[in-house]
Amino acid sequence: MVLLLPEDLISSDRARLTGRRLRHVREVHRAVVGEDVAVGLLGGRMGRGRVLRLDDEVLELALDLDRDPPPKLPLTLVIAVPRPKVLNRVVAAAASLGAARLVLLNAWKVEKAYWGSPRMDPEHLRAQLLLGLEQARDTVLPELRLARLFRPFVEDELPELLGGGTGLLAHPGTGQSAPSPLVAPVTLAIGPEGGWIEAEVQSLLRAGLRPLDLGPRILRTETALAVLVGKLF
Description:
Helix content: 25-40%
Radius of gyration: 20 Å
Mean pLDDT: 94
Shape: elongated
Low-confidence stretches: none
Strand order of the largest sheet: 1-4-5-6-3-2
Distance between the termini: 23 Å
Largest sheet: 6 strands, mixed
Number of helices: 7
CATH topology of the largest domain: Alpha/beta knot
CATH class of the largest domain: Alpha Beta
CATH architecture of the largest domain: 3-Layer(aba) Sandwich
Number of domains: 2
């Protein structure tokens, strides 16, 4: 889907695009004047865009936004910050899977240098979320939170996020499966490469999460994310 930003609108039913999205429509969609492409307005409705102009400079679309985006999952993802080269995939996947909220959390085994990476810049993270929305044909951004201090977040904020729903801690070796049925909202915590340390596990359990075991295989963060969301929803 071509995701439109409010500043792309030149009238209530016209949009003008340049840059990456123009190139995408030309090179991937291979659209021509007169054809329709799937479009959505960030934070708004979805529909079709009729190509009025398409050249090296500009893509201009006539818009017919006639339906709502898909509903968000009642899901908060709490993910220990992964390596910078993995971060893009994790953030985009969280958006494409429909999570309502994403918390990127510090942990003992998260390298301090990760927090200084340009990929942790809020604008860069937002760009990855937008790519995830485009992939999934959605228009509503998940709420994004950066929690650099583990203990204050887990002790002060996490219990409130649970909201009387189900809190799950992905951690191997417990032998525990997901409860059925799930009580929404669901909060799912996924650890760093190398896993949570025992003190973190105990803190997360005290906050109201219960352990969840995916089996003997140790998965990459982005793989565990997809598997867990698929199992839960």
